[in-house]
Amino acid sequence: MAGKKVIITGVPGVGKTTVINEALKKLRESGIEYQSINFGSFMFEVAKSENIVKDRDQMRMLDRVVQKKLQQSAGQAIAKISGNVLIDTHASVKTSKGYLAGLPEWVLREIMPDIIVLVETDDDQILMRRLTDDTRARDKEGSRAIAEHQQFNRSIAAAYAMMTGCTIRIITNADFLLERSSTDLADVLR
Ligand code: AP5
To answer: N or C: which end of the chain has fewer CB within 10 A?
Structure first.
């Protein structure tokens, strides 16, 4: 039987990786297995092997053409993975030339997701999480810019649903409510 393909997105620092890890723990306890894949890591491996970047945060600064080429390689590699797959990625990436679609037609055609999840929370909570995360080179922007990015992601997710027939689920990952957001994600994946 073909597995489920679920794509999970959210602006940097919203906490999607944290929610994914908690949700997968819950699923494992009830005997449900998902392979969790980070789209950015696939892109990064190719970019690193070609000596284009040193860390993953440099990827969104690359020329659009290069980013698209990396996106395509990642999409093709991920499409070959069978079983239940959870893909951690971005609905859109903020570049110096504007928003870049994270899941353009040539990537969606390869993956054909069943569900796209948008992880969201209040803009000022995301701002605080970015400011307190020393491990990454997060974009320095205000809460209004974060709000615009979250809004853009909803709009582009609607286009993805039109292209693939997938459903769109919004999950809120509010401060101190990780238990709730991870339970919501586990329910989507069951
Ligand atoms: P990616 O690896 O996805 O990087 P990211 O967006 O920065 O995502 P992270 O996983 O680092 O952050 P997160 O939002 O999941 O937050 P976290 O769980 O760490 O992508 C890397 C790069 O790849 C991109 O920049 C892009 O260049 C490229 N890329 C990827 N996909 C692409 C695509 N499709 N097309 C083109 N390029 C693509 O949590 C953050 C903080 O919040 C932590 O400190 C955590 O403790 C805290 N936190 C989390 N939840 C809570 C809560 N409920 N309450 C309080 N604190 C919380």
So the answer is: N
